[in-house]
Request: fold
Amino acid sequence: MKALDENGISLVELEVGEKAIIAGIEAKDKKKMSKLLALGVLPGMKVKLLQKFPSFVFKVGNTKIAADESISRNIMVRKD
Amino acid sequence: MDCCKSRKSIFSFLKKNFIDKKNEERSETKKHKLILVGTPNVGKSVIFNYLTGSYVTVSNYPGTTVEITRGTGKIGDEMYEVIDTPGMYSLIPITEEERVTRTLLLKEDPDLVIHVVDAKNLERMLPLTLQLKEAGLPLMLVVNMMDEAERLGRFVDIEKLGKILEIPVAATAAAINRGMAEFKRKVADYGKKRAA
Amino acid sequence: MVKKEQLEFHNLKFHRYFNDIEKAAGDIESMLKSDYRLSKRTIALLLLQDDEEIKALVKKKEKSFDDIDSIIKKTRESCPEPLQYLIMLEHQGKVEKILREVVKNHEKEESSIEQWLDNITIRPLTGIPILLLVLYFGLYKFVGQFGAGTVVDFIEGNIFEAYVNPWINRLVVSLIPYKPVQELLALDYGIITLGIRYAVAIILPIVGTFFLVFSIIEDSGYLPRLALLVDRTFKVIGLNGRAVIPMTLGFGCDTMATLVSRTLETKRERIIATLLLALAIPCSAQLGVILALLSGRPYAMAVWVGFIFLVFLLIGYLSAKILPGERPDFYMEVPPLRIPKLNNVLEKTFSRMQWYFIEIVPMFILASVLIWFGKITGLFDFIMNALAPVMSSMGLPKKAAEAFLFGFFRRDYGAAGLYDLQKSGALNGVQMVVASATLTLFVPCIAQFSIMVKERGIKTALAIVGFIIPFAFISGIALNWMLNTLGVAL
Reply:
């Protein structure tokens, strides 16, 4: 299952400092998906990748979120 | 010397918590029940302290409030049992704490559920408000951290929000004590309306 | 704005599925006959979202559960995405519509100083040096040197040893003619002269300073930053970044930390954290006394720190390998850094100290009573004699067994026993390191053990302790052998 058509890329593929809009949440792993939904990471929101190492840190709306790669990978985005 | 000072305040703290509480319990038989819910870091604990006057560990760390904290406070003319819950992100629990919170909503019969949200992050938090309302709980919304949101250039029309959601909504900046008296009055009004 | 439209199209595309969900929810609603406190619509939606707990509840309450279940299955199959995702999208669509009406944004970026501070704490290049500074000044300088050194010396030396103890001893001896009762209350191991003295003179300053530092760090919002910095390392030992909370709190009080470890998501993580807390994290009281013990000998201190750290990583790594279960996920909100509020910090410190004292003082008194009982019945000498061969294989004098025995009552109690032993000049550098290391690893105190039983169950708790006791002594023997073989003088 894929949350979006082929144009979306994963958040982890963005460069540090790049902004994008969240296009969907990959739903292959339902547990990881519901964690992201619970954090309020939802389609349509603006996201900015702040750093990739040692953990991924990104800003969604006005909140900073830290997550490991396996979680962050499930966020599908469209570049601004 | 330092230790003497701290011990003294521990004693006054103990007295405030245990002795005062006992008296309250004796004088009041029927208390209204009020449950605070919301994600960590939205200022629930500060609001709890304001309503009860007693102390609970205020934490700036997601998930440190492990156990449910209960306190008693007088709001309007009524005595309330105030329950502070561990963080809750959604009605579907993922963590142990969220499970605890939902069980509480299922088992207790609250007279009022107060959902506390961060004004800066309404997008992320209002979905839970909708879920709680859908669940048929007696709900009130507190939009907290208004000061921080304004500093970021965000203004929220609280009255309109209340009309759309059809529930009482209060705007506060609990950390600097803004809007708190008004909020408490709204809680008291709600209690009166429910009684009528 | 093309993107935004595409996006709305994406959500719209899924919107039509929501009609199916809506219909299914309506059908389920009409089949729910019992009372659930939450509205039937909510129960129906939770069922559609595969909420196991609600499913079990409904199964118990409704005769028509099988029909409900088949509606759920059918709906799930007809939708291209998990129902939870679709329902969330629908809610979010509503929220967006509301916010368009009530929120006005004149976007401003947060102030640059805040951003700069935020950034340097989460980048490894600057974040790790900052972390080391926090540890050095917060833990070593303030808790270790000021709390465990200056304040302890003052209260112990200037108050207890100079005034309280001699006075109590004289008073007890003159009032009570019976030797056993005199010993219960005062003299070497009495409730007042040992129990209360340790609690007030050694533990109070150390634990107090630690909780103060911890509260400042916690209130500033620094802990989540620490979590994201250490996540990768913690994954190696089967935990995730989130576990820094119980782990750092463990340096204050392992009992409290074991309680807090329930915030970890999986059972596997909770067991690993409980084990590591019991084994390799010295609590502040123990830490303070050990720091004081080894303070004049930097190399001895380095060997102790290195050895405990190695054990921590090794056992963490091995238990992560052995225990089944999936890799933990790390995800958490990072709140903005803020200047800690004095009020919050003080109240938090006091409430933690209060918890600690309600917990500890009875234990100290109990320990004094048990030791007194052990001494007058000769049980104590018997155990000390039995432990003598173990002590000698670690190169320690027989009297060190007393410290280990004390350590069973409270971790710090044992360390404080060592402290007394060192002050009398009975231990050399190598012996002190071996004794400190073994004592650090050795059993959790009674309070921690009881929380382990309560939180993890009696079987797990016993298994952990059953592993720790022999492991601690074998480690001590190995360390002693290693240091002697290498001919190290510390």
Summary: Chain A has one domain: 9-79. Chain A touches chain C at residues 1, 3-5, 21, 23-25, 27, 30-37, 39, 42-44, 50-51, 53-55, 57, 63-68, 70-71, 78, 80 (CB under 8 Å).
